[in-house]
TrEMBL record:
ATP binds at residues 97-107. Belongs to the GHMP kinase family. IspE subfamily. Residues 68-146 form the GHMP kinase N-terminal domain. GO terms for biological process: isopentenyl diphosphate biosynthetic process, methylerythritol 4-phosphate pathway; terpenoid biosynthetic process. Pathway: Isoprenoid biosynthesis; isopentenyl diphosphate biosynthesis via DXP pathway; isopentenyl diphosphate from 1-deoxy-D-xylulose 5-phosphate: step 3/6. The active site is at 12, 139. It catalyses: 4-CDP-2-C-methyl-D-erythritol + ATP = 4-CDP-2-C-methyl-D-erythritol 2-phosphate + ADP + H(+). GO terms for molecular function: 4-(cytidine 5'-diphospho)-2-C-methyl-D-erythritol kinase activity; ATP binding. Gene3D superfamilies: 3.30.230.10, GHMP kinase, C-terminal domain. It comes from Marinobacter guineae. Catalyzes the phosphorylation of the position 2 hydroxy group of 4-diphosphocytidyl-2C-methyl-D-erythritol. PANTHER family: 4-DIPHOSPHOCYTIDYL-2-C-METHYL-D-ERYTHRITOL KINASE, CHLOROPLASTIC. The gene is ispE. This is 4-diphosphocytidyl-2-C-methyl-D-erythritol kinase.
Amino acid sequence: MSLGITLPSPAKLNLFLHIVGRRPDGYHELQTLFQFLDYGDELTFTLTPEQPGVRLVESVPDVPDDDNLITRAAKALMEHNGEELPGVTIAITKRLPMGGGLGGGSSNAATTLLGLNYLWNLDLSIDQLANIGLDLGADVPVFVRGHAAFGEGVGEKLTNANPPEDWFVVIKPACNINTGKIFSEQGLTRNTPRIKIAPAFEGDASRYRNDCEGVVRELYPEVNQSLEWLSKFGPARLTGTGACIFGRFPTESAARIIWESKPSGVTGFVAKGVNVSPLHTKLTELK
Ligand SMILES: C[C@@](CO)(OP(=O)(O)O)[C@H](O)COP(=O)(O)OP(=O)(O)OC[C@H]1O[C@@H](n2ccc(N)nc2=O)[C@H](O)[C@@H]1O
Ligand SMILES: Nc1ncnc2c1ncn2[C@@H]1O[C@H](COP(=O)(O)OP(=O)(O)O)[C@@H](O)[C@H]1O
């Protein structure tokens, strides 16, 4: 039995995000296109049969270990299994900004579900893992399923999609944005007409937008400034409820030229959009 494994925990982008209505419980109904990036965090799982329970090698800043989505995902799997499982120690290499709209926490939860399903030999199906993941956050199922997708509902009804695998310049403006705050803003656009069929997306990106962008630009001048700068070079957009924004480029060199010309003090990275999650690529190699 393998005692340890290191797995990627990639970022996602919302290539578009439309708010098409509201559920009776107040949650917003979305239509969104998720794509992964070949850039993200990394998690290392080491089984500790002599020491039961779940431990993090290092805490994530401002997140108590018991609230960390990694710990919660591991405990949810233990609970689902019902019987005692070997203890595990988990090390995190954090690269994704938190609360940036890149889904880092949700991705960490999904990597934990798939990684421990493998290490603990639980043999749970992707559907079972996606269901366990949905209780942890609306974005967890797409990371569990591992394919770019058109998402509906709160993002949990997923249809595989194949948007172009472009290169992205991702910028993290110097502010943190709380998802709940944006969804509670009065000025938020909440009535975008529903798209009836899963969009092909190719060549028609201008029909799609991020409905959170207007209120986020108004509330956070840092995001507005970054969007103004990046959109000089092509279409630029907010991911999720922000704060990160991205610009699409057809080649790596085109993206890197723009990245190198960024104003001083701007942080972010260049990455490729991928329709199969790097997590699933790695797990397939292992099996
Ligand atoms: C908007 C998206 C798009 O991918 O991404 P992020 O910006 O967080 O990455 C997600 O749907 C984020 O889903 P999730 O991660 O579960 O949201 P949470 O932070 O738990 O939501 C905080 C609060 O925002 C409100 N909320 C959230 C999602 C939604 N579809 N409608 C809502 O009204 C609810 O009041 C909720 O209590
Ligand atoms: N392992 C984790 N990594 C990042 N954030 C986490 C984690 N566990 C819990 N969180 C909490 O989830 C929030 C949302 O984080 P994240 O998923 O990275 O951003 P977003 O949902 O905006 O894409 C964080 O602000 C943090 O409080």
